[in-house]
Amino acid sequence: MTAQRRTENIQDAPLSVTAFTGSALTAAGITVVRDLGEVDSTLQFSAIGGIATVFMRGLGNPVATLGNEASVPMYIDDVYYSRLSPSFFDLVNVDNVEILKGPQGTLFGRNASAGVISIYTRDPGNTPVIEGMVGYGNYATTTAQLYASVPITDKLAADISLSEYNQASGWGRNVYNGDQTYLNYSFNARSKVIWKPTDSTTVKFIGYYVEQNSLQGVLTTPYAGTVGGGVDNSGTITVPPQPPQPRFYDIKLDHMPGVRTQTYGGSIRVDQELGFGVFSSISAARKTNESYLSDGDLTPYPLANYDTRPADQQYSEELQLKSKPGAPMSWIGGFFYLNTLGGYNPIHIYGNTFTAEGINSIRLIGEQRLNSFAPYGQVTYPILPDTNLTAGLRYNKDVLRGFGSTTIYTYPGGPLSGLGPSFLSAPPFDQTRHFGKLTYKVSVDHHLNPNVMAYALVSTGYKSGTYNAVSISSGALNPETVTTYEFGLKTELLDHRLRLDGAVFRNNLKDLQVQSSQMGIETVINAGSARSQGVEVESTALLARGLTARLSATYLQAEFLNFSNAPYFYQRPGGGNSLGTINARGNVLPRAPRESLGAGLNYVVDVSSVGKFAFDANVAYSSKFYWDSDNVISQGPLTIVNASATFTPRRAEALSIRLWAKNLTNKEYYSIEFEEQGPAGFAASPAAPRTVGAEFRFKF
Questions:
Q1: From residue 221, how far is each of 241, 281, 299, 673 by CA, in Å?
Q2: Whose CA, among 144, 272, 274, 477, lies 20 to 30 Å from 689?
Q3: What pTM was estimated for this model as a whole?
Q4: Which residues of 527-563 are buried (b: 16+ CB within 10 A; e: fewer)?
Q5: pLDDT at 519
Q6: 197: exposed, middle or buried (C-beta count within 10 Å: 0-12, 13-18, 19+)?
């Protein structure tokens, strides 16, 4: 694993980290990153507006507006991605996945205030490889994957990975017009070329293209037990109450929400061995073209619709100089630069709510340009034969410019027509803020014996300040900071048949960035302070020949310590929500279940005359949690069961057939919830129902 930006045994790393190989994830039925929460109890993974959002140890925010980067950043092949759709994270060519828990502010820098998910894809090797899969599931779902790798010369090798997912039948219907709901399509292409011009130089070229067209992960229905509708936000139009439809996956909307994205980019990595260490340069660029449609009132009436054109691009450069593997003292120093452009150009808002006021439409433009600079360094020194001291520092400097405008288009002869066919509601906004933060990490680890290691650490994290691109003139938020204290124990027992790791942690947060609402669009605000503390346990055990058990369990207490004037949404008598404020001190942090558990069994049996059978079952449980800071809407205790069976024939070991089922008990629950003022009320989007399918795999 490379949790400390160098290769080492996971049991020797003085931090809480979970690692999975690509083959282990496949065996457990984990085919996309959003399913990692089923095998790691510290994670809550979902998507809103077609963008991946992650919570870890109760920390994170679900708002996917442009410019608001996640508290749990994603890295792919050591490249930071500020914002990505879930379809980007299929695991067709993954070599391994590492989940680093707690702030990683020293080595991974900005926005790693809750943790990091780091994905490494396969490298092409010296042997030709062709692997593939075709599959079919319910809801007319077809999947296809292909991985091919070939050595071109003894110094040059290349691979390509292709995957397509097409769910052509919906989970339900839009009863307004009979259209199908929650369709999903994605295509992912990725290629890597490795060139070794000398024995001491390695160059990696990576290019990718990702396409998504999805009706999933968008707000479509009132949350169960709540009612939308009622008086619109202009106060002039009243529509009938709108409860959820009788069938869980049905909706009733006049404007179908959905998201389309096209993302492309690439990276170049150069590793040069020197006499005293290794120098690395990682250059990367990405651009996403996107359109996002939203029914802002979640009713069958055309009150408020949002057609959005996000702007999203980034460039990064990282330089590293680190010690050689096996050096008596390991060290790393580097410099990281990030340039991003994120926002909306434009958001087009229209509907009867605005017509009543003489407004034809509203055009919002809100964007932010970031230039971020960060030198960093970390060293691990053996202060005793079995004891190491690790210390690291990073200074983050962010220059953040927010700019935009609001244009109102009027109706001829309407009450605002005297202002002209269009006018600016306020002068254009253009503001630059500077943020700086020093983050650090100090840890001590001691090997009690070759198979038992204890560690203690203090680490800090920093999530940059940000503008709300949907209300750019409201100014920038303060950065979110966290200080973590952690004690852990890592063991390998019973002749390495049992791995048992545990950690006790406490996170102190200041100015945490949490969800709110502006004009029916998700925004972010600063809360005062909060605390997240708990215990987590990770284990794998070889119970018998071919039988492996895995366990991930977390007990968490996460609450606000200071949050005056927190937004408080409450139901109106005629449907929809009103907005007030409360003091949220003592409220539980969003998406922070007290108990969570992931447990699984994998059994492989070899029948000599027939072939190999592999069976896997996984249970993921979470106790009740609240969706929002006001603790109004909650998800009750939830248990999700997945299972699979794979057969590889003796006479054709390059072929296999796999049967699988997810959400085996067909639980009806939500993947996201969002509080809004007005007719939309407590808006939500359902998670997937029971899905089943079969796969045929081959490799040569």
A1: 13, 47, 9, 10
A2: 144
A3: 0.93
A4: bbebebbbebbbbbbeeeeeebbbbbbbbbebbbeeb
A5: 58
A6: exposed
